[in-house]
Amino acid sequence: FLVGDTRRIIREAAQKSCFICCKMGATITCCQTGCDRTFHLPCAPDGQCVTQYFGAYRSFCWEHRPEQALRPRPSHDNTCSICLDTVGDNISYKTMGCPACQDARFHRHCIQRLALHAGIDFRCPCCLNQEPFMMEMLTMGIRLSKRPPSWQSDPEAAPSDQRHGRCDAATCLCPGGREHTEAHGPWQLRLCSSCAAEGIHQLCSSLGNSTCSWECSTC
Fold this sequence. Notes:
Residues 1-65 form the PHD-type domain. By secondary structure, this protein is mostly loops.
């Protein structure tokens, strides 16, 4: 923008209130024709608004934001493919899915964190599809990084397709050993909800059949 254009935009924004926090200085307007909702960028998550970080950098309010069109989930396993905590039954602003395998589900904040860490290696954490998955996430407002994956410079950061896969309990009770895991039941592996760098079998933890998240001793 030219200096004059920048000053004009600032003056106009000073007169617009954010429909989320109701404070003045909202610089972003929904791109939907006829919609005059304005909001601050930091307020967007609270208002379930979407900003697309590519092309024209369009922004949308909660009513006009793009939505994913996914088929019903084949496995009916309502857990996030990244943190393994429970996700919503239906696709929504906070619950997203992979357009390629149609089965992976994840929290918006989990896939956003993965996108920033994975950089140019960003892909579906389940089927490892990259191009269609990446474009879908961009359209849904996930911000990507053009840097190399963070784990190339940080050995402790593991890529999404190499998630921790062993039980780290002091005493592992599984007859198949620490690296034996199952999708459901007592030998389902629960990763630490904070670092995902350690895991524990459901039966080896103190959670029993609870759906509560588990944290390792370090966290």
